[in-house]
Design goal:
Elements: H1 6-10, H2 15-18, H3 24-55, H4 86-92, E1 104-105, E2 108-117, E3 123-130
Antiparallel strand pairs: 1-2, 2-3
Length: 134
């Protein structure tokens, strides 16, 4: 690496960290000069792990005084039976035909094009979007 950087001239980083030639004495000197930075960084890393573990612990709800709970009756096989009115059933049913308008897809016009022909001579089509990228 080129050693014209201000960091290297000021001696902020030892040459062993910036070059391919590793010298153990430079590393020992670096640790001796910056041990407090390493300790503070390690302490902050451990504290961040502690806060992360604390934040992902499961939340527990506490019942207020005099709160009552209702249980759902279960069948003999563990199933829950729900009774719905005809009106509620009609709301749950899906429509048989659903209109879908694909004239505009992401601001561009939808277009079908012949994608390929198979070995039997049948043409297969794909859906594309015709829009100006600019």
């Amino acid at each position: 690496m080129v050693e014209s950087s201000n960091h290297l001239k000021n001696g902020a980083y030892p040459k062993s960290l910036m070059s391919r030639n590793f010298n153990p004495t430079d590393m020992k000197k670096f640790i001796a000069q910056n041990w407090y930075k390493l300790m503070i960084g390690t302490s902050l890393l451990m504290a961040s792990f502690g806060f992360m573990i604390r934040s992902v612990t499961p939340a527990v709800a506490q019942a207020t005084k005099g709160a009552t709970t209702k249980t759902v009756p279960l069948g003999t096989d563990g199933t829950i039976t729900v009774k719905l009115s005809q009106e509620q059933l009609d709301l749950l049913k899906s429509k048989k035909i659903q209109a879908v308008n694909i004239e505009q897809v992401y601001g561009g016009e939808a277009a079908a094009y012949a994608a390929y022909k198979d070995n039997n001579g049948y043409t297969h089509y794909s859906l594309g979007i015709d829009r100006d990228p600019w």
